[in-house]
Amino acid sequence: MTNHWIDLKNSDCILIMGSNAAENHPISFKYVTEAQRKGAKLINVDPRFTRTSAKADIYTALRSGTDIAFLGGMIKYILDNRLYDEEYMKAYTNASALVNPAFDFKDGLFSGYDAANRKYDKSTWSFQADEKGVPKTDPSLQDARCVLQLLKKHYSRYDLKLVSEITGTPEADLLTVYKTYSATGEKGKAGTIMYAMGWTQHTVGVQNIRTMSIIQLLLGNMGVAGGGVNALRGESNVQGSTDQALLWHIWPGYLKSPKASDTSLAVYNEKYTPKSGDPRSANWWQNYPKYSVSLLKSFFGENANKENEFGYNWLPKTDEGKSYSWLDIFDEMYKGNIKGFFAWGQNPACSGTNAGKNREAMKKLDWMVNANLFDNETGSFWRGPGMDPSKIKTEVFMLPACVSVEKEGSVSNSGRWMQWRYQGPKPLGNSLPDGDIIMELGHRLKQIYKEEGKFPEPIRNLKWDYLTDGKYDPHKIAKQINGYFLQDVTIKDQTYKKGTLVPAFAMLQADGSTSCGNWIYCNSYTEKGNMSARRGKQDAPNNIGLYPEFAWCWPVNRRIIYNRASVDPKGQPRNDKRWVIRWNGEKWEGDVPDGPWPPMELPDGKPNPEGRYPFIMQKHGFGAIFGPGLADGPFPEHYEPLECPVEKNYMNSQRMNPVAPVYGTDADAHATCDPRFPYVGTTYRVTEHWQTGLMTRPQPWLLELQPQMFVEMSEELGTLKGIQNGERVTVKSARGSVQCTAIVTKRFKPFNIGGLTIHEVGMPWHYGWRWPESGTEESVNLLTPPTGDPNTRIPETKAFMVNVVKG
Amino acid sequence: MSKSFFIDTTLCTACRGCQVACKQWHNLPAENTTNRGTFENPPDLSFDTYKVVRMREQVIDGKFAWLFFPEQCRHCADPPCRDTAGEPSAIFKDEATGAVIFTANTKGLDADEIIASCPYNIPRKSEDGTLAKCDMCIDRVHNGLLPACVQTCPTGAMNFGDREKMVSLARQRLDIVKKAYPKAQLVDVEYVEVIYLITYQPELYHKNVIAMNAPAGMTRQMALRKMFRPMTSIASGIL
User: Could you give the count of Cα atoms lying within 13 Å of B52 in the half-sphere of its Cβ?
Assistant: First the structure.
């Protein structure tokens, strides 16, 4: 979230699209309903009428996988009717920047497409620059090569009729949504988006969010109270796990994973440290080497020094053009290339897309360690449906972990709040906190590598001193993440003593004199104490629900990021009633501003050379309407999912995202526009279960509420197939089949897609054969497809094709 | 001053946290349910289930609506169940809170007659004839806590407190809601301690939303008058 949960109450218009907040983030509705009570409009767009829809002022449906068409139509509507916040757009976005004349877009392909390798050469996705490398602009926004004009051209094709044909949303409903949401472009109004996996889990996942980011920038909704782009995370600590880089492509704090070609620390730092020739661009990532070196010092401590490049060469490098995501791990495992596997706090036999492939892949392992609260479908895969234990060699070790309330530590919520939790009950039986299990694993590895082992340096040199009285100490880890001064350091007349905690990331150094396990968490645990354990209930002076003394929020306790965009160039709030920050002539008041610099303009209206553009994480300092960083294009474009019900993409000649990965083993079957699988399928959650259900299916009070796997379908489809409400049916895809109870409901309606009647059905993903004990309630991921987003490789579990048959 | 619930169905998202919290506080066993083609489960109130969120799909004036109604005992001002039982050790009204309490001594009474006397069809009997229903979490309330269902509600749909305050909150909320939903009403507010705010006709939510089991030939108002005295006689001046 750029904003945070409480801030939802400040909104004038909340769009819930790609999420089902009332069911899956129930507490959010405390603030959604508060906004509604104050007169805010709630819009919900979802293929199915949900418990969120039931509370919405405006609800309409779209076919799964067509969000870019829907939102692209909104961009066109905003531009055609000049509903954008012109002052904001001109001052704070790259709308006026001039784009490289060689940049082009034709019939679904951007310039630089390499069909053989399914990737883009992105060199033409750039700006025309002056001699200092600063983008040239046309402040009048008239130049045909300026971002705004290119945006207009790109979305000129997204007219109501075509959008309606693709999405299945009636034109009148499109207009209602566009009109209502675009009204937040008025100065002083704020609109927000609440999205989740309904947007991310597509072959166009990142671009779904990009489309909304463009809308938010056009309407001036970024950085303001009640605005922003807000991802609702699917677990209490998913934000934390991403921040700490529980992903292959990043290091903690969103630093880059090095590639094989990044042959030295100097090369690595040079490559990922952007340079701006514009003195008024903060270009915050110019500090990159301070963060990367401090991170290496936190990994290797005293063993890391300038001579050995702070241990940079001890860390793994990825091969050029190769991906190591979840999809790739199971692809390699299926091919027999992975021999050992830690399934830690996860259940890939149920949670991963194309789970049948995952289960088969596990047969190829020599060993698996299953660290979890309970045995699950993954640890017991060898005795699951269709498995012959006598023919499976995989040895499975179960490490019982204790549950979160039985240990001390922090979670970071969707709003970036790091919140410390004390231990409740003691761990049951032999179960241990994950930290203790990991510490012990590290000690054993160190012992083994002391004697022998290939490439032992990373293990031998690893700093591994986080025990107190023989137990994992979360405070030591939290302090390590915050960072220490490793020698006396003097910054602007102040000397920080060796061994003290670094007060904020601005003090981190690139010379090895500081350590920091995650620069964005620097300031969370300082000499003043554990900031995340604070429970102060005093609001900030702006009284908009920031509660700056409750827990701690990254970065540097800033509750609304990009907040410099909430003020005019003189530093005065663009909305007096819900102001976030304001300049009092000497300093900023309110939230922690995005940097200490004064406003862009002096009181007399002249530019202040000390001022900085608001979007400090962007090289040039501007909100990116033109966004050249992604794998699949600087402007989002509608493509159909890997499996879809139409022969062709009505928008362009590329049926699916031309750079989305497609996997090719015999377990990766897929079928588009195939009469065997005529219905769109989608997956979702219910309030009553959690993830793959490991913590909820064995809980009788919750199983009582949602006892069985189900498939929801329209009354029209029920009639067509002769399926009665409540009867058992089988749902099939090209990859597998699952038994479900049919819920035949008015909450699903057939779509009119370009004159065709298209049915969609939906299923929850919480089930698996271990519980309930009948063994009949299986995972929907046996059906889901072998593809994902080209930027993140998140799987496309939200849109695929199925059939439904009786029995 | 008695205690009342104010249940604002306009804010209810049917998350059913209240349903689970009720089971948890009372340590009631889960029922062995199946999916019957609906999210609603268990299918009905029972000896082991004091609260069920009803979820109804309705088309109203051509527009689809999904209506949620967290059903529970209304703790009537003048409870017919108590009068029918006629046994204060089995069914009584707690003076301090207004809670209508069933005890183990309901075993041996005419359970069916007591159930039939309830205008909202709430009490349920066990195999041995003992009756059970919502007890307002009287143990919590006497210790200064909110009922478990209210404590757990994330949206503000479930409210609890002194009757005067709840009635006033309900009236304020009704005034606001009426602007968007002219048919909005507070259900049987004068007769019960559990005040529901609904926006459509009661029967669209569930069959027992308003006091319904009137004998043939009687109007609903007559039935209500026969069944119990209104709250006004107890807490006059508030309404």
Answer: 26
How far apart (Å, rounded) are the C-alpha atoms in residues B194 and B72? 8
pLDDT tens per residue across span A648-695: 999 999 999 999 999 999 999 999 999 999 999 999 999 999 999 999
Cβ atoms of A571 and A611 within 8 Å: the answer is no
**A398 burial level (CB within 10 Å; 0-12, 13-18, 19+):** middle
For the entire predicted model, the pTM comes to 0.96
Q: Per residue in A86-112, is it b (16+ CB within 10 Å) or e — as a string?
A: eebbbbbbbbbbbbbeebebeebbbbb
Name the nearest CA neighbour of A526 among A492, A496, A494.
A496
Looking at chain B, which residue has its C-alpha nearest residue A712?
A: B37
Judged by CB atoms closer than 8 Å, whether chains meet at B64 and A744 is answered as no
Tracing tokens 């209304």 back to the chain, one arrives at B74
Sign, Cα dihedral of A316, A318, A324, A325? positive
Rounded-to-integer distance, Cα A478 and Cα A499, Å: 15
Task: Note the Cα A51 to chain centre separation in Å.
Answer: 23
Q: HSE (CB half, 13 Å, CA atoms) of A295? A: 24
Phi-psi region of A384 (alpha: psi -120 to 50; beta: other; left: phi over 0): beta
Q: Do A744 and B37 touch (CB under 8 A)?
A: yes
Q: Is A248 exposed, middle or buried (0-12, 13-18, 19+ CB in 10 A)?
A: middle
Q: Which domains does chain B have, with CATH numbers?
A: 3-75+142-227 (3.30.70.20), 80-135 (3.30.70.20)
Residue A740, min C-alpha distance to chain B (Å): 10
Residue B158, φ and ψ in degrees, nearest 5: -100, 120
Residue A244 corresponds to which tokens in the numbers above?
């700490």
Is the predicted pLDDT of residue B236 greater than 60, yes or no? Answer: no
Q: Is A705 an 8 Å CB contact of chain B?
A: yes
Burial of A132 (0-12, 13-18, 19+ CB in 10 A): exposed
3-state secondary structure of A301: helix
Contacts of B34 in chain A (CB under 8 A): 707-708, 741
List chain B residues with CB under 8 Å of A707. Answer: 33-35, 41
Interchain pair B13, A22: CB under 8 A:
yes
Cβ–Cβ below 8 Å for A26 and B155: yes
> Dihedral sign, CA of A461, A465, A470, A476?
negative
Return phi, psi of residue A229, to 5°. -120, 115
- For residue B215, pLDDT over 90 is answered with no
Contact A726 B37 (CB under 8 A): yes
Kindly state whether A118 is in contact with chain B, defined as any CB-CB distance less than 8 angstroms.
no
Q: Look up residue A403 and give its DSSP letter.
A: P
User: In angstroms, rounded to a whole number, what is the distance separating the alpha carbons of residues A391 and A389?
Assistant: 5
Contact in structure between A60 and A31 (CB atoms under 8 Å): no
Question: What does the pLDDT look like over B86-136, one tens digit per residue?
Answer: 999 999 999 999 999 999 999 999 999 999 999 999 999 999 999 999 999
B16 closest CB neighbour out of A49, A55, A687: A687
Residue in B17, B30, B36 closest to A704 by CB: B30
Partners of A5 on chain B (C-beta within 8 Å) are none
A39, A180 in Cβ contact below 8 A?
no
Candidates B9, B15, B55, B169, partner chain A, best to mutate (most A CBs within 10 A): B15
Query: For A273-307, what is each residue's pLDDT tens digit?
Result: 999 999 999 999 999 999 999 999 999 999 999 99
Name the nearest CA neighbour of A245 among A292, A309, A208.
A292
* Nearest to A717, CA basis, from A739, A740, A741, A746: A746
Q: Apex CA A250: angle with CA A246 and CA A255, to 5°?
A: 125
Residues from chain A contacting residue B57 (CB–CB below 8 Å): 745-747
A147 touches chain B (CB under 8 A): no
